[in-house]
């Protein structure tokens, strides 16, 4: 419970601190003669550590068109992130919120251009983009976000939005995209996969050139998940949806 609710780092330093906090609390009770012997159970941790710092991130908590689970890397390890997209009557405007950096904004523009150029294959009317505004938001808006690895997540979120199709349950993804339809490798694969596993994700879509990084991922995690590797954006779309 401490691992899932109070620490998210890739190392053990913060876990050691939290265990130390519990031990000091127990030592205080013994010193004050409140107890001679204590057994600490999961339900007791709240007394020593307070409310959990991280609520369980179930990748299934939102399953609707336009919402996709992505994977990110932070200084303390991997994280899952949600990308949300909605459309409204308007005139071609793309709005991006959630404290996104320039690279993520460019990735969103690239994804939208790719979708518009392949609208026929996706079964989307060309007039859709002329008569609608699109708003993309990445929750946890107080935290700045940037980097190219959300490219495929932005792509799939927009495809899901304009086609009205839901992404496969328990699926997450990461990868950089290009206007030519390529998927490029990204960093932090081990940390991202560990975060996906912790969040209940069962299938992960990754760049083909990141397949070599799987040797760093613990074997027991690999055995519990399915992985798809591709270097084509069209393949990403095929694997992200049920049909």
Task: Describe the protein.
By secondary structure, this protein is an alpha/beta fold. 37% of the residues lie in helices and 20% in strands. It has ten helices and nine strands. Helix 4 (102-117) packs across helix 7. The longest helix has 19 residues, at 13-31. The model has no long low-confidence stretch (mean pLDDT 86).
Give the strand order, joined by hyphens, for the main sheet.
3-4-2-1-5-8-9
CATH class label of the largest domain = Alpha Beta
- CATH architecture classification of the largest domain: 2-Layer Sandwich
What is the succession of H and E elements? HHHEEEHHHEHEEEHEHEH
The helicity comes to: 25-40%
- How big is the Rg? 21 Å
Characteristics:
243 residues, alpha/beta, Ribosomal Protein S5, domain 2, 2 domains, seven-stranded mixed β-sheet, two-stranded antiparallel ribbon, serine protease, P-loop_NTPase, ATP-binding, Lon_proteolytic, ATP-dependent peptidase activity
Task: Spell out the blueprint of helices and strands.
Elements: H1 2-6, H2 13-31, H3 45-49, E1 67-74, E2 77-89, E3 94-97, H4 102-117, H5 119-122, H6 127-131, E4 132-137, H7 151-163, E5 171-173, E6 176-177, E7 183-184, H8 189-198, E8 203-207, H9 219-224, E9 226-230, H10 233-240
Parallel strand pairs: 1-5, 3-4, 5-8, 8-9
Antiparallel strand pairs: 1-2, 2-4, 6-7
Provide a compact summary of the structure.
The protein has 243 residues and is an alpha/beta fold. The chain has helices at 2-6, 13-31, 45-49, 102-117, 119-122, 127-131, 151-163, 189-198, 219-224, 233-240; strands at residues 67-74, 77-89, 94-97, 132-137, 171-173, 176-177, 183-184, 203-207, 226-230.
